[in-house]
Amino acid sequence: MQKLSYKIVNGISIYRIITAPVLAYLAFTRNLDVFKWMLCISFLTDVIDGYLARRFNATSVIGSKLDSIADDLTIVAAIIGVFVFKFQFIVEEIIPLGILLGLFIVQNILAFVRYKKMTSFHTYLAKIAAILQGSFFILLFFIIEPIYLLFYTAAIITGLNLIEEIIMILMLPKWEANVKGIYWILKRRKSK
Question: How far apart, in whole angstroms, are the C-alpha atoms of residue 129 and residue 125?
Fold first, then answer.
């Protein structure tokens, strides 16, 4: 049963990795109806695979890496969709989006310099940010006007998450997966 749980959880992440280029293709070919439903499924399966991994104790380093890659690719596909279908939103919100992009680039450069690979912290802030981002992107493609309160909330939480991960990279000399946040790193250090 344990091996099956790993296969199911990792299979869901692999599905999301494979789906990302399909989503990009659907956006570039302006197939909004299929794009928005597949994007919705990708975000929902992100929630499902995380739940299943915790429920059946099917967490692993490879699973954590697959999930992080799938998360990033799904967001990239969603952003491509925004460029194609909702470009005016990008123009209107260029400053907060630029700040988030800058933080994301800094976080990834630091991770590659320090660990030679992406982080897979999966902090509590990252989980909240993912839910808010997914909700915003899904609603953005299903309704006419963006929900700005949801966008700004998602942007603030995402920014805080990226800042926390930057700090965590500086705090942790070796790569680790599934670190809850700075508080837990400090708590662990104090108990030593």
Answer: 6
